[in-house]
Design a protein that fits this description.
Blueprint: H1 2-13, H2 16-63, E1 83-84, E2 87-88, H3 90-99, H4 101-108, E3 114-121, E4 126-131, E5 140-149, E6 152-161
Length: 162
Amino acid sequence: MWMVSFMSIKAQSLSYDFFIACIIFLLVITLIFSLLKDSNIQITEVQKINQITRVSDKLSELWMRKGTPENWDSTDVISIGLISDSRLNQTKLDYLNSIGYQNVKKMSGSGVYEFYLRIYDLENNTMFDFGLYPFDSEFVSKNQRIGILDSSIVFIDTVVWE
C-alpha cells in the first residue's frame, strides 16, 4: 500500500498541468527578456540622439565666437570662431578650407561625429559650405542660427551626424 501512494504522488508531478505551467512560465520569461532588450535598444538610441544634439549645439555656438586669437589665420588658430565685429568674417570662413576638414573636426571637438556647415541667404542661395553632407544617416541633428555676412542677413545651418 505504501508503494501505491508513492507512485500516485510521482505521477501527479509529471501531469499535463505541470508541462503547461512550465511552457507558460518560459513564454513569460522570454517575453520579459524580449521587452528588456527592446527598451535597452531604445535607450541607447535616445542617448545617441542626445549626444549628437549636444555636439550640434556646441558647433553652432563655436561658429558664433571670435576664436583665439581674435584675428586668427590658418597658421596660428588655437580656437575656431567665425565672428569679427559681431558679423561673420569671410576671411575666417576661407581659412576653414585652408585648415582642412579633419583638422577643423579635431579642433572643434566633434569626436566621432561628422558635420556640415552651410551659410545661405534669404533666397536660399548658398554663400558658403564646409564639411561632409549627410547622405544616408540614421541620426542627424540640425541647428540654425541667424547672422550677418557682407551686410546681408544669412542663415547658418550646422548639421551633425554619425
